[in-house]
Amino acid sequence: MSFALLPFIFALIAGITMALQGSLNSALGKVVGLLESTFIVHVIGTVALVILLFLFQLGRGDLGRFNQAPWYTYLGGLLGVLIIYAVVASIPKLGVAVATTLIIVGQVATALVIDHFGLFGLKTVPFTWWKLLGLVFLATGAKLMLN
């Protein structure tokens, strides 16, 4: 297999695991509550990362440089809480397919803006009308999923 395919495979795996995670988190949320399930998920994730980083020493970076990152890069942790809470709150009411489709529409719309302006130091990828058409098709698909 070509290494050029790896990013596509990783993206596919991310999509699969996001749908599974959302479903599992929503099931947990029905039992313990929305904020409580969000907390549990983050605690379990933190424990898993502590084991991977410190016990198995799988990290390839340098945690000692954390203070060199721009302040806004730490907002990802807060956004993670919001994401999990929103997923746990939406899936039971909309279903996994509709909620995931709407999540993807939001992700792609935001990604188009981030790409176009090269926000957060990322590579600039110019906006095209074809991309907007793709987003319209995604949103149309989301609407069709509601029926």
Describe the protein's architecture and organization.
The protein has 147 residues and is mainly α. 74% of the residues lie in helices and 0% in strands. The chain is globular. The model has no long low-confidence stretch (mean pLDDT 91).
Structural features:
147 residues
In short:
The chain has 147 residues and is mainly α. It contains 5 helices and no strands. The termini are far apart.
The radius of gyration is 18 Å
Give the uncertain stretches in residue-range form: none
Number of domains: 1
Overall mean confidence score, pLDDT: 91
Number of strands: 0
State the secondary-structure class: mainly alpha
- For the termini, the CA-CA separation is 40 Å
Helix content: over 70%
Morphology:
globular
Put simply, the count of helices is 5
Strand content: under 5%
The main pleated sheet reads as: none
Q: What is the ordering of alpha helices and beta strands? A: HHHHH
Layout of helices and strands, plus pairs?
Layout: H1 6-32, H2 34-55, H3 75-94, H4 96-117, H5 129-146
Helix pairs in contact: 1-2, 1-3, 2-3, 3-4, 4-5
